[in-house]
Each structure stands twice: as structure tokens, then as C-alpha cells.
Amino acid sequence: MFQQISRRRLMAGSVSLATVAAMPRLALAAAPHRLAITRRTLEVNGKAATVFGIVQPDGRSGLVLDPGQRFQVDLANDAGEAAIIHWHGMTPPYLQDGVADKMRPLLAAGATASYDFDPRPGTHWMHSHHGLQEQSLMAAPLIVHSAEDMSADIQEVVVLLHDFTFRDPAEILAELTGGTVSHTGHDMSGHDMLSMEMPGMEMPGSETPDMAMDQMPMDLNDVEYDAYLANDRTLADPQVVRTERGGRVRLRLINGATTTAFHIDLGALIGTVVAVDGNPVRPVSGQRFPISMGQRLDIILNLPKEGGAFPILAHREGARQRTGIILASPGSAIAKIPDLAEADSAPLDLQCEARLEALSPLARKSPDRVIQVALNGTMSPYVWSIDDPATGRQAPLDVAPGQRIVIEMVNRSHMAHPMHLHGHHFQVIGLQDRAVLGAMRDTVLVPMGGKVTIAFDADNAGRWPFHCHNLLHMATGMMTEVAYS
Q1: CB-based contacts of 52: which residues, under 8 Å, 6+ apart?
Q2: Separation CA 224–CA 362 (nearest Å)
Q3: Domains of the chain, each with CATH number or no CATH
Q4: CB-side exposure of 242: number of CA atoms within 13 Å?
Q5: Residue pLDDT, tens place only, 350-392
Q6: Which residues of the chain are modeled with pLDDT < 70?
Q7: In Å, how far are 132, 135, 170, 171, 395 from 184, measured between CA atoms?
Q8: What residues form DSSP beta bridges with 181?
Q9: How far apart are the first and last CA of the chain?
Q10: Residue 158 · residue 3 · CB < 8 Å
């Protein structure tokens, strides 16, 4: 069960921030948090499945940190196979990012790794960055509270979304590629990826990539899944979160799905987005918001004084399937909600992105380097890349410490790509050919045929993965790195 936190209850049983601030530094020292990568049995639509989990000693999924707490974690691998956990949304030192490469080994079965860095406040998550383990639910929430969170009179509800299959994820990828898959490969920079043989993966030899793309229809979903989950449950048996009549709720929504984007549908409620990817934005109100793979949304809800039951639904992009939870005041009747909507949802676009504005933007500065990248790929043959459509291998994006870097991403494929940069948060500064002062993010959607421009400061030395957060796209080549000279 995922943790729901009532600020009233938490503040009543906690030491006040003022008292904590006055305590001697040595008194604040605490034992590391313990997390374990485990295997567990999950029932989905009446059928049992063995999946992964990342849990605390008491069985709670993921981790919640209060203001001032360091990310001091001992991570034990009890999953029976090698793994690595990426702290998505954190900006730790390079060696603690949770990605295996030449400098950072996998965490062997039975081993424990220790982490210690200053965490970034906000709604984040943790997930495997090895093979296809993320598809088998090796993921969990990672919430870091701010002082403002602690003083707010608001109930918090964390929702982690997944797409779920009973099949071996390697079989699904092998069907898409026409090849075989193992869990031992690395890309040219040494980052852990999948190793696979993919006959016939060449792009059409006599056509330019643009010509090839123009002959293909738009594709919205790579895989048809057996179920779509919200906190490990389907709408056949959804999680019901009890709320106060007239209360306030902060939804912390995390799209941990492997290849599926969603529209968040608040139904009769009007919500206000106050943060994306853990970064505060100027409030944006509405009833429906997009969330692509790897992204997070913080939405404030003011519930009616008369109470009631309020479904919070995640509607799969381009399809009828949906999942979700229900917020319900005491005594409210809970109606059954079908897991199929009446109609397919629309593709995700940039309309909501264009409304977002960072509360703490980058300082104004001329770029030291502008890098242009093209996002390429096709469903058949199933191969995806950054810049090089023929080989799926791409050169690192070289940067130097202290530089302001601008990356212009143009999507030349017929699928959208949520692009994620490790070790940094960037500001969205361009949508299509229009300049914006957009949100600070770590993952941004580049729609089919779209252009998105981002900027960040090179202030965290290392070799940082830059990839599509569609796991199957990354596994077949849509991954490079930002490499500090």
C-alpha cells in the first residue's frame, strides 16, 4: 500500500521545524534509511504475477524524506539478480546516479550499496536502469518534502502509474525487433542497455529519413498491455482514499509506465497544477492534464463541502483503457467505474506545456553552446536513435563546466518521445519555433513532428544519460549522454 499523508496528523506527531532547526548538528545525525529490491506477488485481474518492488523494512513502497534530511540510503539487492536503481529527479554526484557503466558497476544479487547526497525537494521516483526490470515494476515513489509542505494543512496522496504485462518483457521486445535480447549490453559510452541481435534494422537505403517518415502513419502505443495500474491496482478493485468533506488534497502523480502516456482526468473536480517534475510552477487550473513516461504532476484539489466520491483517472493516450483511484469522504457511495472509456483519448500535445511557467527559472544568460539533435526511428524496423538513424549509435553531447547549454530537439519520427536528462533539471525555452519561459523539468515530451528547446547550466560534472523514457525506445538505441570535458 502506498503512503497517504495527512498534514494534520503528521504535524501533530512531529517535532516543529523551529525546534529541529535549533538542535545541535550532531543531534540531527540519523541512521541511513534502508531500502530493499525485492520480489513480490501481485494479483492483477484475478491472476497472480511475480513482480519486483523497492520497499522499506516495514513493507512500505519507496521513500519519503522531510526537510533537511539527507538522502542517506542503504540499498540491499534481495531480488535474486543484478540490478541498479536510478533516483529519477535527483541531481546527485555522478557516481551515485544509479546507472551502471564503466565507472559504476551493477549491484550484485545479495549486495548492498550506500548513498549519501543532498536530495532535491519535490515529487520524484526511483526505478531500475538495467535491462527491462522497470517493466516488471521495479519502481517506487521518492518524495522529498519542503518546509512549505510540512506547514500546509493538506492531505497528500501519491499515485504511481504503470503499464503491466504477464509476459516476459524480453519476449515483447524480441517480437518488436525480430531479434533476441539479453541483459548484458552497454552502449558506446558504457551505459547499461540491452544487447540484442536485430536483423534487418537498416533504414531504407535510398530514402532520406524525412522521406521515410512521411510515408508512415502516426503511432501512439508500442505495446498492448494486460492491465494499467494505479498504485498496483486496476479499476476492477481501485484504491479508495478517504478524504475530509471540504478538505484539500495534493495529488502527487508519477507516470512510471514503460511505454504508456496518460491524460489525467479529474472528472467533476477542478485541479490546480503547482509543480511538474518536482519543480514549482505558476498555478494552472483545469480538469484534464497530460503526463508522459517519467513525468510527475502535483495537483491541488479543493473538495466539495458536501463530500462525495471522486474518481481520479489516468486515460491511456490514443485508446480507451484507463486506471485510477477514488477519493471519497466518509459514507460516500462508491460506484464501479469501467476500465474502458467511451472513446479513445487524443494524442498528447504541447498545449498544457505552453501554459507552464517556472517559479524559479534559470538566470538570464546567453548560451555558451547550442546543440541540435534529431529524434529518429520507425516501428518497422523497430529501431530508434538520436541523430544517427542507420546505426542507433550517437556521439556524446560534449559540454564544459559552467556553460549554459541549449539543446534543440526535433522529432523526425512518427511517435512522441519523452526525453529525460540525468543529473540536471532544465528549463523549457522553446516550443516549436516560439520562445517561452517554461517549466523547469527533467523530462519533456517532444511530440511527433515537434520541436522543443531546453536550457540548463552545466554544473554537475560527469557523463549523464540523455534518453527517451520509453524504455523500449531507449533499449533499441534512443540514448546518448551529456559528457563533461
Answers
A1: 37, 38, 39, 40, 79, 128, 133, 136, 137, 138
A2: 40
A3: 4-141 (2.60.40.420)
A4: 2
A5: 999 999 999 999 999 999 999 999 999 999 889 899 997 655 5
A6: 1-29, 180-217, 389-393
A7: 11, 17, 13, 16, 21
A8: 196
A9: 44
A10: yes
